[in-house]
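Appendix B. Chain record.
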Amino acid sequence: MGSGKRFAVLLCAEDSDYVKKKYGGYFGVFVGMLSEDGEIWDVFRVAAGEFPDECEIGGYDGFVITGSCNDAHGNEAWICKLLNLLKKLDSMKKKVLGICFGHQILGRALGGKIGRAISGWDIGVRTVQLSPSSELFASLKMPKLLSIIECHQDEVWELPPRAEVMAWSKKTGIEMFRYAEHMMGIQGHPEYTNDILLHLVDRLLDRNLIMESYAAEVKASMNGQEPDREAWKKLCISFLKGIL
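Structure tokens predicted for this chain:
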């Protein structure tokens, strides 16, 4: 399954020392979750201006857009270039999976509206309600509820035209969406482990992006909480590789 296929991770974040040391960077985290024998996985550090050449794009079976500390509603040069790339991938009907920032930037590229979450930061393990009308969930025999790690202060406000909401939570109305058969966004982090999130909370605190009281609240809430990582792995692989 998957032998000979080629995928690319569009890396939108800088690796922390912790993630580099333990997982080989965020690229290593995604490859660890999604790769199978016989596949080729490449990384393009798009936040640093490294993009695939136009002649390379056709050689890939799918792309994954990662999370980022940047705002998906920003207009930095690399973000504008990424938007153009995603529009190109849409026109080519390439499989694209967007995670967190990737979910938001994908929504923006396809014509949706994104911005700051009205309810503020959402960090921790959250329960997500899956749409009972989704054929993807039905074919994979997914449960009605799944837990996932969240870490975001932005969200998709309004879906792109012709996109469908696939999941939601008490705090976020669009936790997941699908556009046609080839593009899907997930607001949470199916690739994260609890230790990655706890170290990220410390980084956010060090940068004064969250309050110390909130950081303590998040850490306390993580005790005994585990995301449904295997279910999310199955879902992401099945979508990205068309195994349905």
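Further analysis of this model is presented in Appendix C.
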